[in-house]
Design goal:
- This protein is an alpha/beta fold.
- The chain has one domain: TIM Barrel, CATH 3.20.20.
- The chain has eleven helices and seven strands.
- It has a seven-stranded parallel beta sheet with strand order 1-7-6-5-4-3-2.
- Helix 5 links the parallel strand 4 and strand 5.
């Protein structure tokens, strides 16, 4: 199995008002992120606004990311649907485009029983030959993964990772204790990444890494080196970004941050709204503080 570890920025999806993907902007962003040392790229995560894009846009985002990466870092493409058949089709298509892994996300309208939730993730993993990262975000998902489902899914030969976007770090430790090496844990920005690294996590997949990639990589390196005092000093500074972002729409914050840094990524996809001028100033101040 490919070894995924480190900082995987959740890429934004730069889309024009007419729906066209700004592939040049996305390519440049990918190139710059790789240039400062990120360990992988994740198109179509939460920050990528997957729930607001159509199939053509999603394919363009994944293709552009893979082409920009040129094999230098792994690309783990997000797959999300309310329908198992659609999710399976997406996963197969992204593997064909050259994705190195799949981030499997369950969308649900009607509530689902555990058996149905498990079968959704299993179907995606059965359909591809590349590693699958299962994703859980109880804050936004109608149907969440229980520890029992996670443990059963960890037995699947292609499900080797989980990205947990709860804020419950104790749950991460429970997953590690329960699944051992069968399931490696990626943190989200909702967790404190340095704390997750301390208890045995292997990195984080997160939107803020798009706009603070250099600092994120530095934090990962300090954690890997066991330099915990320095890691926590840096983590305390970086946490201010998370605190600022927690107040607003995440995609709007990351897109505003990238625009401030000179990337013309456009506004969030409607019905989401761009940040107000006051909110943008808060993001700008947080970035300025981090240099």
């Amino acid at each position: 199995m490919s070894d995924f570890h480190g900082v995987f920025p959740y890429l934004v999806s730069p889309v024009d008002a007419d729906g066209a993907v700004r592939t040049n902007v996305l390519s440049r962003l990918c190139d710059d992120l790789i240039g400062v040392g990120v360990h992988g790229l994740t198109p179509l995560g939460s920050t990528g606004e997957f729930a607001y894009l159509d199939a053509v846009q999603r394919t363009a985002i994944v293709r552009t990311t893979i082409e920009a990466a040129k094999g230098r870092v792994p690309v783990v493409a997000g797959v999300a649907s309310t329908s198992t058949a659609d999710a399976v089709a997406q996963a197969k298509a992204y593997q064909k485009l050259g994705a190195d892994g799949i981030l499997a996300i369950l969308e649900a309208y009607f509530p689902l029983a555990d058996a149905q939730i498990e079968s959704y993730f299993r179907a995606i993993a059965d359909a591809v030959d590349i590693p699958v990262v299962i994703y859980t975000n109880p804050q936004f998902q109608r149907s969440d993964l229980t520890l029992d489902i996670i443990a059963r899914l960890a037995e699947h030969p292609r499900i080797g990772y989980i990205k947990d976007a709860s804020t419950n770090t104790g749950r991460l430790l429970s997953i590690m204790n329960r699944c051992g090496d069968a399931l490696r844990v990626f943190s989200a920005s909702a967790h404190i990444p340095a704390a997750v690294m301390l208890i045995g996590g292997l990195g984080w997949m997160a939107g803020p890494a798009c706009i603070i990639p250099r600092q994120s990589v530095a934090l990962y390196d300090l954690c890997k080196a066991g330099r915990w005092d320095e890691a926590m000093a840096l983590q305390r500074r970086l946490w201010r970004i998370n605190e600022a972002f927690a107040r607003f729409n995440l995609a709007a914050c990351i897109k505003a941050g990238l625009a401030i840094q000179g990337y013309d990524v456009g506004d969030p996809v409607p019905p989401q709204a761009a940040l107000t001028e006051d909110a943008r100033k808060i993001v700008e101040a947080a970035l300025r503080e981090l240099g």
